[in-house]
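Blinded run. Sample ID left blank on purpose so nobody reads anything into the name before looking at the predicted structure. Input follows.
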Amino acid sequence: MQTEEEIIAGCKQGKAAAQEKLYTLYSRRMMAVCTRYTKSRFEAEDIFHEAFVKVFKHLDSYNGGSFEGWVRRIFVNTAINHWHQNRKYEFQTDYSTVEESTPAGDDIISSISGQELLLLINQLPEGYKVIFNLYVVEGYNHREISEMLGIAEGTSKSQLAKAKSHLKKTLQKHSISEKC
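Blinded prediction complete.
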């Protein structure tokens, strides 16, 4: 079995077999990234294919370190670019005066599966979902998110707080309906 380094070297040489192996190695994880930023499988597939083309096209710019992190960044950036091109912002107001509030009872999340949580995240309004994914899942800070999306840092904080609140309410309804 080839190592990741050998597969990358083969891709840089234009070997189709190496490109197929790289695609197979990362396709599931990167498709999951794409689906977190879209409303439909069709949109996710568009982003997925566009991002993989970028990976192969810019492979020479990879300089070491976590290859998966490098690939993931291309996929996230492609998803954000797609979001910019195809969405009207659902948040235009600068909420910089709003303080971030974390809802109490976050331990509700530990009672559901990861798959259930992903389904709930995908039901968030578009602006909430993008910021929640960037902050919670991808680990970007509010300053980075504000630069990526072209919004105020306070807006990012506000949207995250609203996303958490929305998820909490949904989880509480979920928890109540299970007990009935």
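Unblinding after everyone has recorded impressions. Residues 153-179 form the longest helix (27 residues).
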